[in-house]
Amino acid sequence: MIEEGTAGTLDFGVLRGAIERRDPDALLGFYEEDAGLRIEHASLPDGLAFELRGRAQIQRYLQAVCDQQMTCAVVGEPVFGEGSVEFVEVCEYPDGARISVSTTLEIRKGRISRQLDVVKRGSEDASREVSAESTRER
Question: What pLDDT, on a 0 to 100 scale, did the predictor assign at position 129?
Answer without folding.
Answer: 45
